[in-house]
Each structure stands twice: as structure tokens, then as C-alpha cells.
Protein: FAM186A/B C-terminal domain-containing protein
Amino acid sequence: VQKEHKPLSPKLKVVESSVLDIFINQCKMPPVSKEKIISTTPRITPSPSIALKEDSSELETTWFPKMFTKIEELPTYDITEKRYWINVEAQRKNLKLLREASQKAGISPDLYNDTKETIKQALHSNVERLALLCRKYKSFYNLHEVRHSLILQLDTAKEAKDGAKMQNLYKMVDKVDAYQKKLLDNGKVKQNVVEKQRQHCLRKMLDLFAQLHSSAQLHLSNPCLL
Structure:
């Protein structure tokens, strides 16, 4: 007669697969449909023939956005250099004024395209920063829940004096802590990339707006100094 094994209580059960694998699978983004979708992401090199036909309302709405520029492509700035911020509504108005000026042949197509794409890229950086913060919060919250669950199981294993399960759970807690640190470090790197890109765009906007003012007497709202 085979001895019947009594199942462990739910608190003592240890998931055989990695907790991190479960967490990563939960956080995976759904596959992107292959159907043709009209993208609202600003194009870096638009076709000159359709540049003036584009709607000025095409702005920073892609979720989650892709990075425009790699960190190696951006110039480095000293930490003491001036930093700027932009008023979103003012920049949307700038796009409208810019398009009206281009239709009146007051500015060159190259200057129009360069200025328009720089404004839209700067606006898109707001979405990039928000997306990174949302991802960071979601990852931190889910990892906190996983770690809390492991600690509860560890307390139960201590009460039962189950050394094997305690050792296994300690290893899993260490893996969660290491993975959380890795996510936070990667998040900081990505935030720095987006911020450098943003400041690069804002400085470029100042130069382009100055050119528009001198060549076409076009007054646009400048980025504000922090």
C-alpha cells in the first residue's frame, strides 16, 4: 500500500519556476498588429514634397514611444550649462504659426522642416519621459509584491523549521533584489538619454527661432530658462 502524501499548505508551496520569469511574462507587451496603422510619431527626415501638407496637430502621441536618438549621437554638456523647459500649448501654437509662414513663402523649406521636426521631437520627449516613469513604477510595484509574497513564505518556512525551503526562498529573494537593482540602473540610463536629447532639442530650438526672427520676422515662443 502506497503511503499517501499530505499536500503542503498554500503558504509552504514554492513555485518551481523562477519568480522573475513569472514577473517578466506578466509585464510583456502584447504583440504589435501587422495591420497598417497611421503613425503619429514625428519623422526625422520627412519628404519635402509633402512637408507642407502635414497637419500641425500631428504631435507626441505614440505609446510607448521609441527613442529618437542614441546617447552616443548627442553632444555632451557641462553640468553648469543652462537648462530649459517648454510650454506645450505654446509650442503647438508655434507649429501653427510656422506652417502659416511657410505657406506665405516667408521661410525656406529646409528651415521650415528643421524647425518643425525639432519642435515635434522636443514635444515627443515629454511622452518618452512619462512612459519611462510609468514603466519604472509598474516594475517596482510588481517586484515589491513578489518580494512581499516570498517573505511571507519564508516566515512560514521558519515556523515549520524547513531548512531546504528557507534556503531556496532566500535565494529567490536575493534574485528579486538583484533584478530590481538592475531595472533601476537601466531606468536611470534611459532617463539620462531622454533628458540629454530633450535639452539638445531645446537649445537647437533657440538657434532656429533666432534664424526665423532675423530672416522672416517670425516671432515664436522660446523655451523658458529653468
